[in-house]
């Protein structure tokens, strides 16, 4: 008989296995239990931390292991906020974010200063630092918002941008007040702070993307890519601290730096979000809860007075700021509530500022007691502020986010829910499988969770090696998609002709988009060109994409898109255009459109409805576009809208494009798109996207993809 024994069962628990098990049980149980009673599990984790922490039942201590993992969770929240922000919308809303950032900094700051100086009788320095506590906020509810699928809502974008601004201002105020309290604020101080912050910003926002792009091009190992992301987060956090600001600003900047290198639909993004939401962020919430000590509020009326003023200044100030932002930019009532919910939580920067101020001793009393810049009443009041503000943030954010998500779903249903999308990957070569899957994931609609197919056609003679090869290719495709949390339906087809086999599957599965890939070294070989023009393109009701990939899609900075004259008159133009829009929105790459003035006007009208980062250049002659394409720079790719003979947008030079691509762009990524030329009369509903005469409607169609 084997006796199992666990040592050190006295409280607090010291056994590392038991400690970690207990934390994991809390992380597992909180969402399962609290979701049933409509309580945000974020709040449950904080309360659980308070119950098991040193100020509760003292089950666990807030030791270095909790602090380190919790710190990673805090950095993760800020990193994800920067990583998931839509850079096109961010640039579009930058003035709105700046306005909100100033509102949410100034209003709580003024309320806090008035309360500290006139009611609590603090000194000017203490009152200023006290006021700065309420200007910053922690995006503690951001994971909840992201999970509901509204991270691209303008209100969220404005709040995330404003968070960066107000946190930087609040933490700069902390650095200045600390310097003034120690008497070393002079010209040298200001120069050092300004230069160090500028250098930090340049290193993270300019050099980090260069390092990241090089790394992702050279290293394919998925584990190494994830570890690289963690290294970038902590390195940016360290550089921020060296520059004189808090680590959370560095983490947010790291998210902005890697934003374009980690596509929102990629397997790497899935890993980053999964590990953060499963482990690191819950640890942070539990560690915050461990700071809460309810006993102090029954021991001193002064603590309650300070806490009351802190709550009014922080939550009241954030509410007034959110209302002012809503009214200024004419947002909906629910979007105003969402801004308030996201910005009302005070945890990270507030706690950092309080601890710094608490540890600064400015003098001593006659009895030798230290006089701190921020006293113990403020420290204890900040703990109550964290608990109450996180509670308010969780409930308000969840309530408003759910209503916004429901409204978005209703608009999608009432808009163009008939748009059906079935994407087929025709697999043939092992070297192209992963890149084809990544392209398919990038161009698909967000709502398309089951209609992605991978096909390999096996010779009718059932050659054993061919069957094994098919299994290998299909397994690789399904594994690659599964890593991004996407399901691919593998298909094996026995036929004595590959093209006939593919066409039969197109009929059976009502395929809307067919992706075929070129081998890196061969490009457009004579046999492939013949199969393309005399085989795949013989169907008139399928959008055909021919893909040549030299480097990962995530490392592409800009896609040059050539659109021939009259392309907008083709039946499948807008369906094909939607694929380009998806590439831009899901990868974060910029798009440069080369087209006639008439088509560019249409695109500019669309972009007002569904924003992407795009530049528009008039292409008066097709030859001009070819010359521009031949001069693509590193990390740029080419997308060409093609046409078959007899279509309105067909020009004779298109027959020469395969030869020109082989000659000039063999070392570049390019994608040829052949839009379908007519509707499938047996399933016209799925082609509804191409039948809109009102070009403004396409904006709604594009928008529906991202809900």
Please tell me about this protein's structure.
The chain is an alpha/beta fold and 707 residues long. The protein has helices at 16-34, 41-52, 64-84, 87-92, 94-119, 124-132, 142-147, 154-181, 187-218, 222-242, 247-258, 267-289, 301-329, 333-343, 348-358, 376-416, 430-443, 464-483, 498-509, 526-534, 573-587, 597-607, 622-629, 657-664, 697-704; strands at residues 361-364, 370-372, 423-426, 452-459, 489-495, 513-517, 543-548, 558-562, 590-595, 614-618, 636-641, 669-674.
Topology, please?
Blueprint: H1 16-34, H2 41-52, H3 64-84, H4 87-92, H5 94-119, H6 124-132, H7 142-147, H8 154-181, H9 187-218, H10 222-242, H11 247-258, H12 267-289, H13 301-329, H14 333-343, H15 348-358, E1 361-364, E2 370-372, H16 376-416, E3 423-426, H17 430-443, E4 452-459, H18 464-483, E5 489-495, H19 498-509, E6 513-517, H20 526-534, E7 543-548, E8 558-562, H21 573-587, E9 590-595, H22 597-607, E10 614-618, H23 622-629, E11 636-641, H24 657-664, E12 669-674, H25 697-704
Parallel strand pairs: 3-4, 3-6, 4-5, 6-7, 8-9, 8-11, 9-10, 11-12
Antiparallel strand pairs: 1-2, 7-12
Helix pairs in contact: 1-2, 2-12, 2-16, 3-11, 3-12, 5-6, 5-8, 5-13, 6-8, 8-14, 8-15, 9-10, 9-11, 10-11, 12-18, 13-14, 13-16, 14-16, 15-16, 17-18
Write down how many β-strands occur, each being a DSSP E stretch of 2 or more residues.
Answer: 12
Q: Structural class, from helix and strand content?
A: alpha/beta
* Amino- and carboxy-terminal Cα gap: 58 Å
**Looking across the biggest beta sheet, what order are the strands in?**
5-4-3-6-7-12-11-8-9-10
Estimate percent helicity. Answer: 55-70%
Question: Strand fraction band?
Answer: 5-15%
Radius of gyration: 29 Å
Overall 3D form: elongated
Low-pLDDT segments, ≥5 res = 1-5, 411-418, 680-707
Biggest sheet layout: 10 strands, mixed
Mean pLDDT: 83
**Count of separate DSSP helical elements:** 25
């Amino acid at each position: 008989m084997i006796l199992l024994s666990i040592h050190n069962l006295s409280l607090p628990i010291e056994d590392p296995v038991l400690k970690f098990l207990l934390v994991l049980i809390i992380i597992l149980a909180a969402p399962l239990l609290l979701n049933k009673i409509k309580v945000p599990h974020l709040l449950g984790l904080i309360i659980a931390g308070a119950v098991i922490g040193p100020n509760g039942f003292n089950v666990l201590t807030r030791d270095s292991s909790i602090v380190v993992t919790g710190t990673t969770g805090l950095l993760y929240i800020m990193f994800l906020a920067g990583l998931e922000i839509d850079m096109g919308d961010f640039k579009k809303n930058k003035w709105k974010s700046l306005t909100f950032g100033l509102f949410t900094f100034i209003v709580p700051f003024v309320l806090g200063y008035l309360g500290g100086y006139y009611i609590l009788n603090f000194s000017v320095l203490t009152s200023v630092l006290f006021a700065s506590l309420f200007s910053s906020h922690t995006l503690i509810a951001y994971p909840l918002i992201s999970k509901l699928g509204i991270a691209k809502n303008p209100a969220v974008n404005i709040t995330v941008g404003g968070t960066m601004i107000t946190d930087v201002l609040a933490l700069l105020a902390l650095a200045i007040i600390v310097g003034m309290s120690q008497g070393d604020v002079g010209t040298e101080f200001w120069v050092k702070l300004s230069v160090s912050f500028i250098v930090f910003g340049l290193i993270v926002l300019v050099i980090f993307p260069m390092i990241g792009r090089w790394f992702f091009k050279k290293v394919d190992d998925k584990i190494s890519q994830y570890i690289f992301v963690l290294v970038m987060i902590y390195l940016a956090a360290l550089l921020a601290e060296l520059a004189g600001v808090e680590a959370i600003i560095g983490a947010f900047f790291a998210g902005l730096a890697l934003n374009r290198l980690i596509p929102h639909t990629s397997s790497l993004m899935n890993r980053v979000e999964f590990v953060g939401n499963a482990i690191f962020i819950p640890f942070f919430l539990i560690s915050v809860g461990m700071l809460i000590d309810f006993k102090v509020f029954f021991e001193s009326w002064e603590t309650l007075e300070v806490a009351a003023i802190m709550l009014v200044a922080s939550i009241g100030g954030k509410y007034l700021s959110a209302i002012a932002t809503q009214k200024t930019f004419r947002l909906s009532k629910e979007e105003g509530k969402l801004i308030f919910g996201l910005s009302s939580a005070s945890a990270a920067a507030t706690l950092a500022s309080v601890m710094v101020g608490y540890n600064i001793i400015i003098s001593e009393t006659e009895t030798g007691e230290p006089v701190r810049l921020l006293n113990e009443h403020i420290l204890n009041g900040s703990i109550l502020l964290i608990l109450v503000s996180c509670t308010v943030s969780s409930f308000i954010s969840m309530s408003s986010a759910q209503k916004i998500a429901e409204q978005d779903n209703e608009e999608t249903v009432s808009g163009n829910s008939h748009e059906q999308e079935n994407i087929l990957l025709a697999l043939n070569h092992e070297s192209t499988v992963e890149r084809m899957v990544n392209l398919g994931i990038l161009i698909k609609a967000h709502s398309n969770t089951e209609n992605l197919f991978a096909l390999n056609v096996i010779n009718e003679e059932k050659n054993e090696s061919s069957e094994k090869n098919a299994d290998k290719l299909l397994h690789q495709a399904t594994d690659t998609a599964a890593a991004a949390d996407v399901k691919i339906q593998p298909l094996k087809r026995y036929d004595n002709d590959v093209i006939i086999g593919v066409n039969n599957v197109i009929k059976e599965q009502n395929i809307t988009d067919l992706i075929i890939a070129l081998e890196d070294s061969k490009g457009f070989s004579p046999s492939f060109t013949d199969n393309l023009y005399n085989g795949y393109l013989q169907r008139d009701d399928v959008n055909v994409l021919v893909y040549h990939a030299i480097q990962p899609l995530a490392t592409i900075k800009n896609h040059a898109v050539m659109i021939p004259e009259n392309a907008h008159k083709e039946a499948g133009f807008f369906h094909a255009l939607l694929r380009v829009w998806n590439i831009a929105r899901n990868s974060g790459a910029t798009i440069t459109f080369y087209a006639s003035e008439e088509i560019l006007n249409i695109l500019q009208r669309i972009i007002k409805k569904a924003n992407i980062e795009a530049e528009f250049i008039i292409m008066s002659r097709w030859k001009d576009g070819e010359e521009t394409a031949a001069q693509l720079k590193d990390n740029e790719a080419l997308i060409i809208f093609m046409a078959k003979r007899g279509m309105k947008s067909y020009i004779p030079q298109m027959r020469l494009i395969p030869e020109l691509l082989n000659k000039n762009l063999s070392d570049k990524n390019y994608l040829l798109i052949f839009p379908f030329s007519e509707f499938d009369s047996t399933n016209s509903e799925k082609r509804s996207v191409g039948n809109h005469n009102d070009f403004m409607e396409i904006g709604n169609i594009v928008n529906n993809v991202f809900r």
